[in-house]
TrEMBL record:
Function: Plays an essential role in chain termination during de novo fatty acid synthesis.
Protein family: Belongs to the acyl-ACP thioesterase family.
Pfam family, one: Acyl-ACP_TE
GO MF annotations, alphabetized: acyl carrier activity; fatty acyl-[ACP] hydrolase activity
Organism, as annotated: Nyssa sinensis
Protein's name in the database: Acyl-[acyl-carrier-protein] hydrolase
InterPro entries in the record: Acyl-ACP_TE_C, Acyl-ACP_thioesterase_NHD, FATA/B, HotDog_dom_sf
Amino acid sequence: MNELLAMTSMASTKNFAQHYPEDLCKAERKNDAMAAQVLKVSCYGSRNGGMATTRCLSGSVKATSHSYKSVDIINGKKVIGIDMDVVPYLGTNGSEVLKVNSEDEPHARLLGRFVEDRFVYRQTFVIRSYEIGPDKTATMETLMNLLQETALNHVTSSGLAGNGFGATREMSLRKLIWVVTRINIQVEKYSSWGDVVEIDTWVDAAGKNGMRRDWIIREYNTQKIITRATSTWVIMNRETRRLSKIPDEVRKEVQPFYLDRVSIPTADTDIEKIEKLNDETAKRIRSGLAPRWSDMDANQHINNVKYIGWILESVPINVLQDYNLTSMTLEYRRECQQSNVLESLTSMKERVAEEKNSSS
């Protein structure tokens, strides 16, 4: 049974938490302990010549131990299991999705299409070399970017897209944009370079003034689900930067696409309260994290995926090397702008892990 370490992080615009092995907190393996680490990322902005701090993000993540994939480089024949004389996109992994036939043109899969009576949007991706990390698998940022890309293409393909970043026509007329308030992602397996994945996404109502978007990621060849994700979105006025109710005209646009289905049951999402951190309670602090111009997105704020890298800045390097994130929850509290400076704070605590029964 794998021991886990739970890490919770907070950022001045977001919340985040992760789980790693118990021995990082000097807990004995026989006790089956789970350690929790709390992270906080704070945004600083000038206010009357001083510095004002506001929490933007907090969240949680789980991870399990893993070993690096073996790399066969004898005579230069293979790298990460792919023959060097075979282009990854057209090699063993990618050939299935790029195979041309009359019923399923390759561009249709790569560009996306509707399935299940147009309630579900499906798109296929090949994991590229610049989307993998040191362990030769897709990073958490890569997965989040693929989810975002699929969601935006869903809106565009539906015929609803206005001139905003995923906004509908009626939203664009009213200067409204979508902003995410919460994301939970659970990863069973990370894909490797050249692997082909298939992503499904759909939407549903979330309360009176929110929208829920879910995703599942499958291995293309086996159709095995390897990642699940769910998120909650609300509407914001792009000029006043204030939250807004969903106008009836917008609701009429999106309601025909609502599907009453969840990728992650509510009981399985990480609902543990994320602890607050400060300079006194944090064990590790990474200061001076400055957003770059390229970190901004079309909604004129820091893109939600960028926070993951900042949060991991305060995670011990041995954790990043030896363990995979298996679950992550982000709660977005406020916007972060390019002029802000951030710091990431981390602390740990122990807790008992629940034992899972296994039939094998």
